[in-house]
Amino acid sequence: MDQTQQPKHLWWQKGIIYQIYPRSFMDSNADGVGDIQGIITKLDYLQWLGIQAIWVSPVYPSPMADFGYDIADYTGIHPLFGSLKDFDALLKQVHGRGMKLILDLVPNHSSDQHPWFLESRSSRDNPKRDWYLWHDPGKDGGPPNNWLSVFGGSGWEWDETTSQYYYHAFLKEQPDLNWRNPEVQQAMLDAMRFWMDRGVDGFRVDVMWHMVKDNQWRNNPPNPDYKPHMATYEKLTPAYSTDQPEVHEIVGMMRRLMDEYEDRLIIGEIYLPIHKLVTYYGINNQGAHLPFNFQLIALPWNARQISSTIDQYEGALPANGWPNWVLGNHDQSRIASRVGKSQARVAAMLLLTLRGTPTIYYGDEIGMHDVAIPEEEVQDPQGLNMPGLNLSRDPFRTPMQWDDSLNAAFTTGKPWLRLAEDYKRNNVQAQKDDAESMLTLYRRLIELRNTEPALHIGNYIPVYTENDLLAFIREADKRFLVVLNLSHAPGYFTPTDVEIHGRILLSTCADRQLNEVQGKITLNGDEGLLIELF
Ligand code: NOJ
């Protein structure tokens, strides 16, 4: 269907989402950890950048076993980040700028310090016992089945007091909630309502595909593709512990709640292959508005594979299902480290010209890279639990680099994670007025995307290419051709199925003349071109 013919496009379709990892964005009180007041001081920057919505990783009360993804109170704010008053101030400031605020919601599991779990584990006949996943030992006296924790080891933890195991897909400090229990459903929907009533514009729902488990607790089968360098979780295929059909009823419930409010958004964090991912849009699009599409993270940086995946994804989307693209987040190596500095510029052009809502991970707009964290400074439980596998996520969570002053102006205290050593050269201040910087490229791409309907709501038309080139057209009132060279070597673009006559609007290579092109295009290595077709 012609996407531009839709009656009305909503903010989350037209705009760009920016993810803030709050611990690392901006610290206002010198404790070395970013906070809400810090974010408020940077809203002018985000507005200048041109993004539409901010998604903030968890700021709820939490023992921080998994840096906030272990929630001890779904309706509060951790004092480390501020107070509810600060939160309301943030929301007001965000809305005052015409922007939106998306909260992270972690409904699959709570903290083991959440009062619900403290009650649940207190005795077998506690009314909240069934709120979590308790089980008798298996026949051999060990765990009930072979399910593994994403963070290493068994997914089952023995509880001495009540002599049963409980299931945790992540840390043992993150017990999984029992989403088959209607009281759990109600409690979480109430928490969502609490934030929606305050004015929050949507949720990014953590590990949405994990929420419901097989009700027969069957063993997961071995993963035939497992290799010893992989996380131990990869030994099995999580066929029974994730992506169960009943999860769609839960997503539908959340969606119905959101639909009681005007113009709200529900994003699902889902790491699944495309054909399964798209089921999370729900029947008749009554599921998540945006099931996160992580293909650009999962795929090797290869033009053929990426362009065929774009087409597969476009082809698999349900009618009126809105696409989205992600290059990075707090769980993944940064794009600049994965593909290198020059290709990170090409990646930025790809992200910001594809059809569908782009999500930018904080710092990627200044080309931040993974930072080497000495072993004795590792903080991330995923790294600490599986030493030797290099799985710590700290390198991609380092403090934002604002300027060349002490700690890049992130904090006047001792930062919770060390900063990149290049921050004196590589920071917002230095890049702002530098025509050749990554930040300038991002800003220009965002500006073009925001102002040209073809780029934010236009159709996507694949263009056949060979070798390391990737090309497509975006079309509405105007037509734009995007040609990206994913290799370091120069290349020729000689399309067979499209007539080229246009003007280069933007190149990822600073010294490119923005002139007219006709017929054949010669690209530099690592060059992406955005061309307005006549
Ligand atoms: C996904 C989150 O993005 C990640 O940071 C977290 O550790 C796990 N879910 C567990 O909540």
UniProtKB/TrEMBL annotation:
InterPro entries: GH, GH13_cat_dom, Glyco_hydro_b, O16G_dom_2. CDD domains: AmyAc_OligoGlu_like. Keywords: Glycosidase, Hydrolase. Pfam families: Alpha-amylase. Transmembrane segments: none annotated. It comes from the Bacteria. Residues 19-397 form the Glycosyl hydrolase family 13 catalytic domain. GO terms for molecular function: alpha-amylase activity. GO terms for biological process: oligosaccharide catabolic process. Belongs to the glycosyl hydrolase 13 family. This is DUF3459 domain-containing protein. It comes from Rhodocytophaga rosea.
